[in-house]
Amino acid sequence: MRPSPPLDMALVHEARRALEGRIRRTPLEDSPALSENAGVPVSLKLECFQLTGSFKIRGAFFVLLRLSDEERRRGIVTCSAGNHGKAVAYVARQLSIPAEIHVPRNVDEAKYRAILALGAVVIRSATDSFDETEELAKLEAASSGRLYLTAFDADDILAANGGTLAAEVLEEAPDARTFLLPVGGAGLAGGFAFYAKSVLPEARIIGCQHALSPALALSLARGEAVVRLPPVATTAGGVEGGIGRTGFAVLKDRIDGVALLTEAQIFGAVRFMLDRHQILIEPSSAVTVAAILTGKAWGKAGRLASPTAVVISGRNVALPTIRRILGA
Predict the structure, then answer these.
(1) Cα gap 259→180, rounded to integer Å
(2) What is the pLDDT of residues 47-71, one digit of tens each?
(3) Domains plus CATH for the chain?
(4) CB-CB contact of 160 with 173 (8 Å)
(5) CA nearest to 103, candidates 151, 71, 146, 147
(6) Which residues touch 153 (CB under 8 Å, ≥6 apart)?
(7) Terminal CA-to-CA distance of the chain, rounded, Å?
């Protein structure tokens, strides 16, 4: 991987400048139904309306813009559960950078087709495991002399994916003091927690994960990053697998709680967003909504104690998955 500058506020500000005019400033919308459930005002940061359908465009643009001419000429290799790959393919096409994207065998079909349509070379793995697929992608990058672009495990990714998003949320929801974030590799959560806690030391950060793939919870219990986990059967591929060492190094002293959600609870949150907000979101992004609907966002506290902002990270989901969720 290409060395990244250390994560600090200057890097977040650099990312914001680089992304200005290249991505959308996504809306923040109040949710009366979630507010009633939580007992405090709840707003939704709708990153599902971002270019390519997820927050991943932030990190992809920032890192690829910083490549040298020689790195751009050789091209890049990456691994993705779907959204990162779609974002990289989009940016690579914009910047005329050859891109090879490795995806797990069980990648969401809508994401797979979208990456192909954007002109990237897509290598579908023989395994459902993101972690094993990523190892193969790294080997291919090393053997071919190309840059390996991580989806989450680098400071510049944290600064762009999470830091720039946190800056927008804090500007748009100045009263919010609790923030619910999906956690997979922690590229979003780590950068968001870094920025939010730097600006608001009293901020509360709640990480939301799949109950069968709780890399953050396990890492906190063990005191070190659990970077690999066995694959699980889930439609929420973005929150499956191990956590990045870079993101966990930031989160270990900044996370205030972890909510673990089941597949059924995630499905219920997708249906809730369709019913109450008329917005289709993908299962990986529904963990934050599910955390409020189930009460897991506040743990033993009984209720959330402060105005809350919920990150809705993406919308990319295949029609067969939607039918399963709706029971159609």
Answers:
(1) 9
(2) 999 999 999 999 999 999 999 999 9
(3) 11-55+154-326 (3.40.50.1100), 57-149 (3.40.50.1100)
(4) no
(5) 151
(6) 1, 185, 187, 244, 245, 246, 247
(7) 44
